[in-house]
Amino acid sequence: MSSPIGVGFIGVGVISDTYLENLNSFPDVEVLILGDLDTERAASQAAKHDVPASGTAADVLAHPGVQVVVNLTIPAVHAEISSAAIAAGKHVWTEKPLGMDRTSTAALLQQADAAGLRVGCAPDTVLGPGFQTAKRAIQSGVIGTPLFAQTSMQYQGPEVFHPNPGFLFARGAGPLLDIGPYYFTALVSLFGTVDKVVALGQRAQLERAIRVGDRAGETFPVEVPSTISVLTAFEAGQQATSLVSFDSPLARQGVVEIHGSEGSLVVPDPNMFEGRVAFVRPFEEFGETPPEQEWIEIPQTGKVTGRGLGLLDMVRAIHEDRPHVASGELGYHVLDIMLSAEESAASGDFRTVESSVQPVPAVPAEFDPFEKTL
């Protein structure tokens, strides 16, 4: 791969802004063209971010300089668009989830492998200096042997700010598939393959009302659990409990706690690229009332960027012939975990997660997105 690596976008919705801002700051990549069903919107984004060309998805796939396609389309067509990019000879970076079902998503990875092409999948927040600082601390043994984890994302739901929230309560969404990828990607990045899951879900309401915007007061159906609790068992022996909810009056987001034999560590919000990393030691002894525990802060190391970091790591990994962090394999395993949790919540049974993942590599502390390396 020559430098800089040519990149094209298919889909230029709201999230494309942060991708473009970051990718345009990385010297190892160059955004060449933006494509969208709405070609006027693609042209507007191209002008806004100084991208030299715009057009349709077909224009992106036909562009001779594009080596990597960024797939920012709606989740329902993620696998279809990614497959078309691979058929055109392009590597793919896709927003989460990798796909909507196991069959088409597994076929996508098989297609890429047969073509000798890479697939990367969001979230790439796990490459951020916040999460990586926490991962290196765990690997260095600051909390001893990791035993179990707790994660939580809960609030009253997106209808309080989103003018068209119905799709977030439809099949293929809900808090599990919308927000869950951040938390399960973080857990798998720390502990490895999940062996089995069991879950409980509920729909607090069968219909909900839009609260903001021109359609305020309109109702929409709730098709999936709006609250789901998932217990995961990892092949390496750890366990985790995870709550995702659109029903909680108490807002609590970004909770990731890892508890080990010699301490407990807080990990930054997995939806962010930076944040606090700190741990506590076990008490040696205490009387009737335990004393307040002392938090030991761990300084964050690494340069903070944002979305697009996973794509940068992928193109450097291709050049260096090494695995990339936010891989299609990881994205598929996380999808399999979440689908298994949905199936468990519906049946009440434990579900074996059939897929597996190789240990997720760490990002070196000296990784510099702003360095020209290719």
UniProtKB/TrEMBL annotation:
InterPro entries assigned to the protein according to its UniProt record, in alphabetical order: Gfo/Idh/MocA-like_OxRdtase_N (IPR000683), Gfo/Idh/MocA_oxidrdct_glycsds (IPR050463), GFO_IDH_MocA-like_dom (IPR055170), NAD(P)-bd_dom_sf (IPR036291)
Annotated PANTHER family: BCDNA.GH03377
One Pfam family, short name: GFO_IDH_MocA
Keywords carried by this UniProt record: NAD, Oxidoreductase
Lineage: Bacteria, Bacillati, Actinomycetota, Actinomycetes, Micrococcales
Natural source organism: Kocuria coralli
All residue ranges annotated as the Gfo/Idh/MocA-like oxidoreductase N-terminal domain in the record: 5-119
Protein name (database record): Gfo/Idh/MocA family oxidoreductase
Residue ranges annotated for the GFO/IDH/MocA-like oxidoreductase domain, each copy included: 131-266
Gene3D superfamilies (UniProt xref): Dihydrodipicolinate Reductase, domain 2, NAD(P)-binding Rossmann-like Domain
GO molecular function: nucleotide binding; oxidoreductase activity
